[in-house]
């Protein structure tokens, strides 16, 4: 919802004041909690936060009088009154009704929470408005990732984020990029090299990067009761790759609620998993944090683990295969597919109860909802890749070398690696000990990746299906590409071929660049290509060379991870957004190919 103001110049001044105030709020928190000792005396920082609180309150009063419609302003800012009431109760009630032992701590906490909520609200509104500003939405998406990575790297550089020695700027940038792009490649051990604050920062980057900060902004706006404008809905439709505009609000709400529900179920299911391996010394709080961390990392297809050897120590735990694998698969299917499946299940349940308990609806019910073509392709290709990848790994580990592979992952290990290689990056076997043939299979799976609209990278399952069926149509001399008795538009075919070619180019260029920068490290070309494919597919599997990369190599991987998360076609669209299509065609002439 966009509010109209009478004095636009005053509104621009207030926007600048908000930006400056929000930056000072963030700086005050960094000074308070980012160092072993506050950079400034705590009373001074608390006084600064009180002044910032006054600035926010005065800004709202000025905007109220500057608004063209007080009713419109009240609808858009209805949540401000309960927040101010709660703040007043906390500030004036501390020491009287509650918090009698430490009233100052309660007051500081209440003011801090209010300031954080104000900053989050303003950031969310800003990103949604920027996405709907009429500019190229892909540029906004790219800029949001760059800003998030930069802020994350800065926070990881703080002394309080490290458990041992302070992390370097390049390593912090690498870790922030890997978390934001939900890749999972690490140059520092997540569990031992980062403090609880550092782990929380990484987890926040995974969640924000997995779903997208623009989606979070829209979710926050909807939760606050603000309807999206038409321009905002169009922008969100473009960013979510949704087909219908009318249900974009429902889809955004489904993404938020579905994500929280799936991650919560995963965390609860994982809670008892850590006791399966002798040596676990964590308490209940650490056990819950470990469960929540790995649940979010699995569903967002990030592959970050608090254990130095990922899930190798838990390769015999049932939860790895019964809980982690479904989380990875659900996260890689795409929110559009999950939304379609949820609607189909809801429709079947509704029809069942109508048939069972309402006789007058038996003859007047509408036709059942059918599964969309996108859902059919995603489910079919995903199942084929999981099964074929598992069989290929089993085959190559048994017959790749004389006497078989020393690793011998077994059926469950091969299944797990086939699932995780396309999206996440967890591993239950040592990747470096797999045969060259199995690693090549993993590269192919990483190249394909997950499905459109998911948190996974790669060319996507639908792209692979379109490219294959285009070849089949050419061999059968059919003029149209057909799947499940449906025709695919030629523009989709062109986009699929373009994405595939761009990914191939980026993969080979990254491999070539790494072979130059890492020539002194003695890495094999197989290891280098595996690393490049893992970064481009935002997977996170590695043969163990990531921490040993040179600074130039780390910077190359950073760029490749960002390209893999956004997609080469997205970046190309951002660069060519202002190019106008030509309105003429040249005469055609036959050429010979093949």
Task: Set down the secondary structure blueprint.
Layout: H1 8-33, H2 42-66, H3 70-76, H4 80-93, H5 103-131, H6 137-156, H7 169-180, H8 190-193, H9 196-211, H10 213-223, H11 230-240, H12 248-270, H13 284-299, H14 318-333, H15 335-357, H16 373-399, H17 410-423, H18 436-448, H19 461-475, E1 481-483, E2 486-488, H20 490-517, H21 525-536, H22 551-566, H23 568-575
Antiparallel strand pairs: 1-2
| Radius of gyration over all CA atoms, rounded | 26 Å
The largest sheet, given as strand count, sense and whether it forms a barrel, is: 2 strands, antiparallel
Pick out the low-confidence regions: none
**Number of beta strands:** 2
Average pLDDT, all residues? 81
Strand order of the main beta sheet, please?
Answer: 1-2
Number of helices: 23
Estimate what percentage of residues fall within beta strands: under 5%
Write down the oligomeric state: single chain
CA-based shape: globular
Question: What is the SS-derived class?
Answer: mainly alpha
Percentage of residues in helical conformation: 55-70%
Describe it.
This protein is mostly helical. It has helices at residues 8-33, 42-66, 70-76, 80-93, 103-131, 137-156, 169-180, 190-193, 196-211, 213-223, 230-240, 248-270, 284-299, 318-333, 335-357, 373-399, 410-423, 436-448, 461-475, 490-517, 525-536, 551-566, 568-575, and strands spanning 481-483, 486-488. The protein has a two-stranded antiparallel sheet. A hairpin with a 2-residue loop joins strand 1 (481-483) and strand 2. Helix 7 (169-180) packs across helix 9 (196-211), helix 16 (373-399) runs antiparallel to helix 18 and helix 16 crosses helix 19.
């Amino acid at each position: 919802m966009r509010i109209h103001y009478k004095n636009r110049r005053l509104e621009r001044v207030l926007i600048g004041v908000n930006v400056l105030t929000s930056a000072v709020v963030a700086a005050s928190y960094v000074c308070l909690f980012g160092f072993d000792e506050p950079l400034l005396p705590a009373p001074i920082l608390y006084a600064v936060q009180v002044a910032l609180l006054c600035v926010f309150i005065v800004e709202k009063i000025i905007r109220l009088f500057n608004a063209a419609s007080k009713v419109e302003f009240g609808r858009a800012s209805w949540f401000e009154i309960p927040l101010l009431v709660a703040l007043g109760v906390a500030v004036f009630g501390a020491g009287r009704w509650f918090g009698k032992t430490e009233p100052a701590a309660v007051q500081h906490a209440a003011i801090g929470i209010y300031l954080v909520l104000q900053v989050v609200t303003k950031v969310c509104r800003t990103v949604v408005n920027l996405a709907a500003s009429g500019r190229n939405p892909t540029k906004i998406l790219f800029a949001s990732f760059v800003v998030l990575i930069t802020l994350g790297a800065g926070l990881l550089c703080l002394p309080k984020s490290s458990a041992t020695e302070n992390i370097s700027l390049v390593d912090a940038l690498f870790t922030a990029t890997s978390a934001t792009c939900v890749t999972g490649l690490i140059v520092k051990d997540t569990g031992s090299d980062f403090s609880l604050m550092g782990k929380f920062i990484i987890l926040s980057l995974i969640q924000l990067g997995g779903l997208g900060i623009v989606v979070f902004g829209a979710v926050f706006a909807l939760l606050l009761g603000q309807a999206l404008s038409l321009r905002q809905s169009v922008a969100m439709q473009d960013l979510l790759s949704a087909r219908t505009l009318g249900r974009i609000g429902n889809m955004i709400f489904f993404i938020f609620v579905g994500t929280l529900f799936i991650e919560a179920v995963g965390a609860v299911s994982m809670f008892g998993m850590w006791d399966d391996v002798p040596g676990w010394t964590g308490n209940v709080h650490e056990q819950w944090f470990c469960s929540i961390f790995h649940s979010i990392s699995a569903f967002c297809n990030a592959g970050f683990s608090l254990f130095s050897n990922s899930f190798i120590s838990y390769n015999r735990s049932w939860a790895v295969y019964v809980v982690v694998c479904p989380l990875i698969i659900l996260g890689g299917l795409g929110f559009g597919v999950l939304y379609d499946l949820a609607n189909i299940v809801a429709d079947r349940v509704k029809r069942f109860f109508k048939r069972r308990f309402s006789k007058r609806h038996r003859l007047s019910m509408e036709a059942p909802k059918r599964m969309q073509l996108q859902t059919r392709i995603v489910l079919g290709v995903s199942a084929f890749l999981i099964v074929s990848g598992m069989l290929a790994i089993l085959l190559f580990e048994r017959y790749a070398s004389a006497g078989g592979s020393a690793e011998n992952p077994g059926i469950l290990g091969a299944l797990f690696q086939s699932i995780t290689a396309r999206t996440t990056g967890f591993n239950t076997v040592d990747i470096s000990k797999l045969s060259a043939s199995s690693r090549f299979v993993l590269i192919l799976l990483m190249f394909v990746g997950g499905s459109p609209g998911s948190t996974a990278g790669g060319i996507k399952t639908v792209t692979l299906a379109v490219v294959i069926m285009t070849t089949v149509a050419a061999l059968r001399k059919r003029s149209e590409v057909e799947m499940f008795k449906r025709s695919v538009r030629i523009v989709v075919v062109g986009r699929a071929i373009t994405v595939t070619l761009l990914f191939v180019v980026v993969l080979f260029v990254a491999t070539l660049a790494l072979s130059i920068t890492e020539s002194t490290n003695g890495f094999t070309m197989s290891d280098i290509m595996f690393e490049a494919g893992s970064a481009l597919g935002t997977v996170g599997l590695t043969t163990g060379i990531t921490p040993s990369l040179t600074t130039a190599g780390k910077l190359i991987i950073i760029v490749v991870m960002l390209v893999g998360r956004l997609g080469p076609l997205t970046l190309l669209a951002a660069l060519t957004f202002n190019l106008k299509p030509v309105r003429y065609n040249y005469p055609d002439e036959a050429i010979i190919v093949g």
